[in-house]
Q: What sequence folds into this?
């Protein structure tokens, strides 16, 4: 898929006959808006920073102005609607944000109620991981490609990043559950020991508490005393007085024994978690993304993970899957948000 570079001031192409969607990926730091065509190509995009500590109305006005700018850029094109990707729990019936870890000031807000009158078009909201899964299903790793040459039927997308989130798409539709909160595979229990690492959700031993970038950094920091003086891990800590998941992977690549052990433990937990995903959802495509996945790729660990998943699969039906890495990159949230518009309007 071709996604033009960041170019907020480019002019619309001459043709006005192509359907487009307005899309927004609204995270804790930036709100990013785009105009996306039905092939998943980003025609225009712009972003605005969230002001730290901004009140609800200030956030809504800044992001809303960005969506209006996208609408204005679209000009005479037929705009099918606007899709918004947000981190957090969203009521699927009302499009109300129930709880957001990154934008708590928006809790309880219905973006369609706030923005539809100004835009004059329908607005839909979805969880960012769900919409990432939807984008991958239609425009990314879920498409037919050699050597399999068949599109996904059931795709599960899991992001291993600061946290661990997931989205499930079955036969083209997002599975959201009764209250729109399905897919929280990051909070399945992997380690049930009394001293298992605590998780931000309040439980212990969750997949997120064992495999997120923050969890990997924390596990390495807790074992710094075992690292040899002058080792890559010690050097990384001494240079910044704090460890990151990226630094742990870099140290493991240099053969640091403690870093290797920490990464090995995370990989084992990932295998258990994704093995559970196979047995519960029976996907034929599992897509993984996020910063931790980049570290796993750099260490060539995906083959080990896939083999471990197959060992944990209950039957040949669960073993009939392919493991892919996310293919939409930085455009994932916006392409997924546009996919929501196409799905809701019957254009997908």
A:
């Amino acid at each position: 898929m071709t996604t033009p570079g960041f170019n907020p001031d480019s002019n619309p192409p001459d043709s006005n006959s192509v359907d487009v969607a307005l899309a927004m990926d609204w995270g804790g730091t930036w709100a990013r808006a785009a105009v996306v065509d039905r092939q998943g190509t980003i025609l225009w995009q712009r972003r605005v920073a969230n002001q730290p500590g901004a009140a609800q109305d200030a956030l809504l006005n800044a992001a809303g102005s960005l969506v209006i700018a996208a609408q204005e850029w679209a000009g005479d094109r037929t705009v099918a609607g606007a899709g918004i990707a947000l981190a957090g729990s969203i009521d699927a019936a009302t499009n109300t944000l129930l709880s957001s870890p990154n934008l708590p000031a928006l809790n309880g807000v219905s973006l369609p109620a706030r923005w539809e009158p100004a835009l004059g078009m329908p607005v839909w909201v979805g969880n960012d991981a769900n919409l990432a899964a939807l984008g991958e299903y239609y425009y990314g790793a879920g498409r037919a490609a050699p050597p399999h040459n068949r599109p996904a039927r059931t795709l599960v997308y899991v992001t291993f990043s600061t946290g661990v989130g997931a989205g499930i798409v079955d036969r083209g539709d997002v599975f959201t559950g009764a209250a729109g909160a399905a897919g929280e595979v990051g909070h399945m229990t992997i380690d049930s020991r009394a001293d298992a690492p605590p998780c931000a959700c309040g439980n212990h031993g969750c997949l997120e508490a064992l495999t997120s970038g923050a969890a990997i950094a924390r596990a390495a920091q807790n074992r710094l005393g075992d690292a040899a003086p002058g080792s890559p891990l010690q050097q990384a800590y001494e240079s910044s007085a704090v460890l990151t998941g990226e630094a742990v992977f870099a140290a493991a690549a240099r053969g640091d024994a403690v870093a290797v052990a920490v990464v090995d433990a995370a990989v084992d937990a990932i295998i258990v978690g994704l093995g559970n995903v196979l047995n519960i959802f029976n996907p034929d495509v599992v897509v993984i993304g996020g910063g931790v996945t980049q570290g796993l790729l750099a260490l060539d660990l995906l083959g080990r993970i896939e083999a471990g998943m197959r060992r944990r699969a209950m039957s040949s039906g669960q073993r009939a899957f392919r493991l892919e890495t996310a293919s939409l990159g930085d455009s994932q949230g916006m392409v997924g948000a546009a996919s929501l518009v196409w799905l809701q309007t019957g254009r997908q």
